[in-house]
């Protein structure tokens, strides 16, 4: 399995504002790059915080890229995955439409009724007692044939993936905006590291739109 984390952050390192609403940090070229990256992957993963905040579709938008996937013998859309310990994903969430296969990774703490509701719309993966055990969940996704994984956020999930040593690559678009706010989500939130900080190796750095794209290897 190969896991690439992709995100767009403001010049001051925020993924969104303190209102946790979706903000267009990327420019047109970066959104096109993200669409190509999605098209190149078996699955696109987010945390339930992103589903509740943004209600994303997580689909490939360019029809030509979908057609190319079909030509290559793949489904027209990559699978979508939500990491959601308590099965809080709303049944009318855009990520549960039938335009792509969806997996919801839950923990044993998810109420049975919520799990049954979601099971009508998605494949459920149960891993972990109170919180999704990411190592077990990603192993289950791999067993289901999902090898090339893209994670789109948010900051809580990205931190946990680094904590579990699950990140192979980090691609960050740094946009020209200042968002600020001590409670605004950053690229890696969670409890934070106080020692043994993961370090990355810079692979490429390019100017894109009005910002920069940094690609790091883990
Ligand atoms: N600019 C960008 O590129 C992006 C921006 N965003 C922004 O980020 C914000 C959302 O980020 P955030 O609130 O951090 O939410 P996340 O999407 O990171 O989801 C976090 C939630 O995932 C669940 N979860 C389950 N298991 C785990 C685990 N092992 N580790 C971590 N989380 C786990 C937890 O909820 P539970 O315990 O209930 O399961 C947790 O609260 C929004 O404002 C959104 O707009 C999001 C993506 C990309
Ligand atoms: N690459 C990127 N740039 C930004 O500026 C963003 N705000 C995001 N957000 C992510 O994209 C998801 C929306 O996906 P759909 O367009 O609905 O398919 C959103 O939930 C964030 O994960 N990404």
Automatic annotation (TrEMBL):
Keyword vocabulary terms for this entry: NADP, Oxidoreductase, Riboflavin biosynthesis
Pathway assigned in UniProt = Cofactor biosynthesis; riboflavin biosynthesis
From the UniProt record, list the reaction(s) this protein catalyses: 2,5-diamino-6-(1-D-ribitylamino)pyrimidin-4(3H)-one 5'-phosphate + NAD(+) = 2,5-diamino-6-(1-D-ribosylamino)pyrimidin-4(3H)-one 5'-phosphate + NADH + H(+); 2,5-diamino-6-(1-D-ribitylamino)pyrimidin-4(3H)-one 5'-phosphate + NADP(+) = 2,5-diamino-6-(1-D-ribosylamino)pyrimidin-4(3H)-one 5'-phosphate + NADPH + H(+)
Q: What is this protein called?
A: 2,5-diamino-6-(ribosylamino)-4(3H)-pyrimidinone 5'-phosphate reductase
Location of the Bacterial bifunctional deaminase-reductase C-terminal domain: 2-213
Gene Ontology biological process: riboflavin biosynthetic process
User: Where does this protein come from, organism-wise?
Assistant: Natronolimnobius baerhuensis
E.C. number: 1.1.1.302
């Amino acid at each position: 399995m190969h896991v690439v984390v992709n995100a767009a952050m403001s010049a001051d390192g925020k993924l969104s504002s303190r209102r946790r609403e979706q903000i267009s940090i990327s420019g047109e070229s970066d959104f096109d790059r993200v669409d190509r990256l999605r098209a190149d992957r078996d699955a696109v993963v987010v945390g339930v915080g992103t589903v509740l905040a943004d209600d994303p579709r997580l689909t490939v938008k360019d029809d030509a890229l979908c057609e190319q996937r079909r030509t290559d013998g793949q489904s027209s859309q990559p699978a979508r995955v939500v990491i959601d310990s308590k099965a809080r994903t709303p049944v009318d969430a855009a990520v549960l439409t039938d335009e792509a296969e969806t997996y919801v990774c839950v923990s044993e703490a998810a109420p049975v009724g919520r799990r049954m509701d979601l099971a009508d719309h998605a494949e459920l993966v149960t891993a972990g007692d109170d919180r999704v055990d990411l190592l077990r969940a990603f192993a289950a996704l791999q067993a289901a044939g999902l090898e090339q994984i893209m994670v789109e956020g948010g900051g809580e999930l990205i931190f946990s993936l680094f904590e579990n040593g699950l990140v192979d690559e980090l691609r960050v678009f740094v946009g020209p905006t200042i968002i600020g706010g001590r409670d605004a989500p950053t690229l890696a939130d969670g409890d934070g590291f106080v020692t043994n900080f993961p370090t990355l190796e810079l692979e490429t750095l390019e100017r894109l739109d009005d910002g920069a794209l940094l690609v790091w290897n883990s």
